[in-house]
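Sample 3 of the quickstart, ligand fe (ii) ion:
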Amino acid sequence: MPGSDAAPASSVSGASVASDASDAPDTSRALDASAAADASAELDTSPASDASDAAGMTETAPPPTCTISPQSATVVINCEGQFAFDGRAAECGLAQSFGGAQCTALCPPFNSMVADYCTLDDGPPSTLSCDYPDTCGPMGTGRRPRGLRRIKAKGDRSLSRYLSETTHLEAASVFAFARLARELTAHGAPVRLRDRALAAARDEERHARVVGALATERGGVIARVRVETGRTRTLRAIAIENAVEGCVHESFGAAVAVVQAQTAADPAVRTAYRRIARDELRHAELAWDVARWLDTRLTSADRARVLRARRRAATACLASSGREPEREMVETLGVPAARVARAIALELAATVWAHA
Ligand SMILES: [Fe+2]
Ligand SMILES: [Fe+2]
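Result:
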């Protein structure tokens, strides 16, 4: 059962952990769950039914439908949607992580995008996470934790909204690094990697405070971070998340921070992002070091899956880096204009992301 994470970020302004789904925002209009329910009806669920029949069980509960529950709370942060799922991986003939047609059939479209990667956490209740490919916005995304709930920043100015959303992502990264440290320990990783992950969590706490101050000075309202967590994941699941959120997204986010440190018209923003950029570059390095250690523990088939996930994330980042931010964000905050963000993504794709 998903539970509350430990509270590494309890001192972070605006950060907290939710342990039940009742306070999820109503995002049902953003994600048309019924579409997925219809599409997923094509999934073959016969193995589970056969097993029940063979065992001569007297049914006391309806069999799983192996679909998302259309009425379930749906949450999206950036481009990950989460849904209650009726069934477990084995009985539905699904892997814990999968892409392709199965994922596309199960996940409803979001902003005209189809999900390209799915992760199924067995329950009860089971949760299906759908990743949509539009992942690198003008702000970069940093390292998002699994189970992070969507927020919609309030405010009538793009600057305060941007800073509020960035603060939310910075605070959310605390949970991502805390979980990474915990899971690395559980899997016997070198202590040095765990310590670097914990240090990164502390960096992110500081980022959340600093950017949060910039946001509130401009009237921004900081949303609480809510993260649902689960059990320690497999090395493969950790590696895929690290490849996407660390190797790709944190590398991109670090480069965005460098641009902000150099070009923001607001001197307070330049000062804040000088430190943040240094930290984020270190976080990107950590992601690659974690990836190298994980590679020594994975099968060749799993390493190939991780590589595919990283390439998909890089391709998605390239595709979405061309969105033009508002002029005020470019000038005051130094957020890279679309042509700059595109150049960053192309450079990363040709160098860092291409790294085998
Ligand atoms: Fe950060
Ligand atoms: Fe970071």
